[in-house]
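Sample log: Membrane protein.
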Amino acid sequence: MGKQSTVLGLLLILFLLYGIFLRGFALDQKVYWHDEVFTALRSAGYIGETVVEEVFTGEIMTPSQLLKYQKVTPEKPFDDTLESLMTHPEHPPIYYVLVRVWQDWFGSSIATIRSLSVVFSYFIFPALYLFCYAVFQSHSVAITSILLLAVSPFHLLYAQEARPYSFWTLTTLLWLWSFWQVVQKKQWQYWLIYGTITVLNFYTSLLSSLVAFTQGVYLVLQEKRLSSRTIRNYFLVMFSSAIAFSPWLLIIINNYSQLRSKTGWTTEDAPYSFLVKIWGLHFSSLLIDLGFSIDHPYSYLIPPLILILIAYGFWFLKQTSTRSRFLFLLCLFIIPSLSLILPDLIFGGQRSVQTRYFIPSLIAAQVTLGYLFSQKLKQRVWQVLLVIILSLGLISCWQISQAEVWWNKGISYSNPQAAKVINQSSDVLVISNAGGNNLGNIISLAYLVKPETRFKLVTEATELNDILAFDTIFLFYPSPDLKKAILDRYPVKIEEIPDVPLLQLSRILAP
């Protein structure tokens, strides 16, 4: 056991250093995508609809004129940040408030804003250790779980993104730790800590409600008596936390129509075959992510194997550990996942396509695998399997660190390729129209193109004047109406450019 602990300790140091290095490596290399643009826009105190009115006027604009909406200025005080956040009630405010403070202190560059998520990701390591040790009273379980965390592709991706998910992972781990403490020790000090962290989580993500529900289900199943003191205290904490969260809850109620419109994409139908593949990839990305497309044979092979390994981990946990540990981690794995998956299966939609929404379930899977490997390490086959998984995780993380884009960049995935096409041309005008995701993608593109590139952003009512004064003209995510308006007015043809969201205008020469 001493030799095993020494090996685990050495591996922990090496992989921790590797994970810490990669989390802070090349923070400004990857595309600053649509959602990150809106993180900066909101924290700087701008409202998306107001920005649309100011920039989609048909006036010729430079990249720097668009990027001013990404920077904190004295003209936009903290009150403007809060006002902006209220227009997006689907995102509780605490992370964005922290981003605003971070920008006030350190600036508004891409690397600076993303570095806050990196800082949170570093604190995830001790938080995971605390949680694992509290549950299992085992250093080896905690160390093995941290090894898996250090080279986890999923955790690396969100450690480097200016979004709240690294912070939510941290607060969720602290929440789970405090919950386990109150269940096991039942001391008022831990109830106070648990209540405080509950409020913190509610103000971090609306999906924290799924974790709160999971904790309640676990208590009912474990205590078996609704009248138990622990369950009464749990409901008291939830009631008090709901009161503390009520100011934001009122904002949600008052802006419910905006919330519905901004989350409407979750109700758009997706093929079941696509959903099933995505669900598997959610959990495989915890350990391995080699960047293959969803239609690659990888998606049919690796995710099922990872899910089998996780299922075996839960079976092994049930056979070798206490009922309370097994039940707690199983509830944490199943309930948040099914809360997202079942509505898509029953009502249609794609609530379950976002891996980041599965963070509580991913934590349960990771801790269960940490327990499995820590208990099996005396067996040669499990030593080899752990080395293979850690090596593939290491390779995955290195590939991610070298890439401009990865799957988590979503609707801005093709922006770097579009920028390369634009930057190869001279005297460029990029035309786009308001609507859809265009505002975020246009500002994302403005980070990537040469300073001399010009933008003409229009609405349906905008006059399309003087666009042929430029040598090279591109349409970026144009609507059908915009294309028709240009073809009706100018002697041009519109040509597609393969694999990028650009169309190029070519003049039709008179015979």
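Observation: The longest strand covers residues 428-433.
Observation: The mean pLDDT is 94.
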